[in-house]
Design brief:
The structure holds two protein chains of two kinds. By secondary structure, chain A is mainly β. Chain A is built from no helices and eleven strands. Chain A has strands at 5-7, 10-14, 19-24, 31-37, 44-49, 55-58, 61-65, 71-76, 85-92, 100-101, 105-110. In chain A, the strands form two sheets. In chain A, strands 2, 4, 5, 9, 10 and 11 form a six-stranded mixed β-sheet that branches. In chain A, strands 1-3-8-7-6 form a five-stranded antiparallel β-sheet, with no helix packed on it. Chain A is globular. Chain B is an all-beta fold. Chain B is built from no helices and eleven strands. Chain B starts with a strand and ends with a strand. Classes of the chains: A mainly beta, B mainly beta. Chain A binds chain B through residues 6, 31, 33, 35, 40-45, 48, 50, 88, 90, 92, 97-99, 101-104, 106, and chain B through 4, 31, 33, 35, 40-43, 45, 48, 50, 56, 58, 90, 92, 94, 99-103, 105-108.
Amino acid sequence: TQLLEQSPQFLSIQEGENLTVYCNSSSVFSSLQWYRQEPGEGPVLLVTVVTGGEVKKLKRLTFQFGDARKDSSLHITAAQPGDTGLYLCAGLQTGANNLFFGTGTRLTVIP
Amino acid sequence: NAGVTQTPKFRILKIGQSMTLQCTQDMNHNYMYWYRQDPGMGLKLIYYSVGAGITDKGEVPNGYNVSRSTTEDFPLRLELAAPSQTSVYFCASFRRGASYNEQFFGPGTRLTVL
């Protein structure tokens, strides 16, 4: 069983469209992170959210942590081809020594 | 800083062969991890270490071994390679603090077992 489920698994959209990726769990996390991975490279951290209900913006990307700290969403406005990649959420539980990674969402933005 | 470095970048093994994947970080992080990523999938934790001399199993440890003799190095050993171990392997170190956490990944090792 996967601790963090992401949806959708695959997403292909036209440049300029908006999209939302979801990261859901039945477990509580002390913090949750979003990473982006480009082909042939390792994941790179985009953002960390630590407070229930927290919203963080990174240019055209908006990240939200659920009130109960069990879920998160990533919203991209006016997607660009450079946004193409694998998006991974990762949660850290209190007292844990490792992050739990989500199942991933592969985004393709078509020019 | 070089960050997290991994060698080799690519390797082809025959069934039953053994090899060591090297991982080094220069950020003085105590926490280090090995993940495998199968095509189109997320990351699965193989082994991790919270400091020199301390290692622990992750989600998929079978067929692998690790050691952590120094803070900088965390090699991953495959003793008897099997086709199921064909994957991309990522090493990572973790900067863990009270208000900020970030995991830094190496560029990966692409392993094929034939």
